[in-house]
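Protein Record: Sequence and Backbone Structure Tokens
======================================================
Tokens: labelled as protein backbone structure tokens, with as many entries as the chain has residues.
Question of interest: how does this chain fold, as expressed in backbone structure tokens?

___
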Amino acid sequence: MAPALEVADIFRRHGEAFREAHAGHLGCVERRVMGAITTCRTAALGIEQCDDCGATRIAYNSCRNRHCPKCQGLARAHWLAERQAELLPVPYFHVVFTLPASVGEIAFQNKAAVYAILFRAAAETLATIAADPRHLGAKLGITMVLHTWGQTLQHHPHVHCVVPGGGPSLDGTRWVACRPGFFLPVHVLARLFRRLFLRELENAFGAGKLRFFNNLANLAKPQAFARRLGELRRLDWVVYAKPPFGGPEQVLAYLGRYTHRVAIANSRLLSLTDSEVRFTWKDYRAGGKTKVMTLDADEFIRRFLLHTLPDSFHRIRHYGFLANGARGDSLALCHQLLDARDTGACQPADNRTKGDRPLTTADFVICPNCGGTMRRIATVPRSCNAGPFSCDTS
């Protein structure tokens, strides 16, 4: 059953007012996201015509925007199908690297640069500590997923890392397993993560890759930026290691929940009025108790759009022996060392979202009238100049 209320409903009712109120500050990506979600699975997104009998119909296609709450099921299913063959018959660990709030505000004004630093610093931290014989003495394989939100939709950038509990020894001759139930010491990870991240952030500033405006404009001055770095070096940074997964089935279930998640699911929305939005959230400081939050519609949309990502930015990345370049050979070595070449991975669940139109490389479906091929003949162009929330502010 479809949710009674959707983010698209909020955009349809309050989006135009938001666009007008924030015309000077709303970027192309945000406008395109609003337009895509608003028109998703409506008549605006396509007409199909049969090659044989010429019958046409409104297709109600998915917008396929990665920020749309309705368009993640099929993408998730395809991604999981590719991942299942990469799972190893070992326990898996879940590690979370979180940026302090005073770094998060820098990240918000420099999303592509700082989020990329977050990925690299977290990956290097894990690889460095794991390679140390005092801790593990092995090469890791790491899958990372960027999330930028908390339960109340505030900006809260962090990366979730899923890591096999061990890896090939540094000379590649044997499999080195973690101690049962223990991965790597989080206090050691946190200190190295802080040092590596701040070093890269300082280098980015020196190379002129960071920009600052509004309340952070003063940080453009070298002395002010140096003071901020000094403050950040004195903070305790948070790295959290969750209990290990039991095996491949649990890993796939976890990845299915996290990899293609958006800032808020439609199922959390409770009500919409002429001025307010109510939704549920979990207060983890109160033991995960579910509570209800009420926001002005303008503020809800503002918070939702905080989490749009720059075009072409990859929010899922792989490192170590799971890095794209040599993944096949590296996994073959892992299986050899584990003596588990024939270990089968579980089949992923069909996570297709109800209503997703079947997709193929030809992007066609069967004509309900004659059984011929129906092809899409009209769509909304994939450009920021199309749709009700285009980038044209004139």
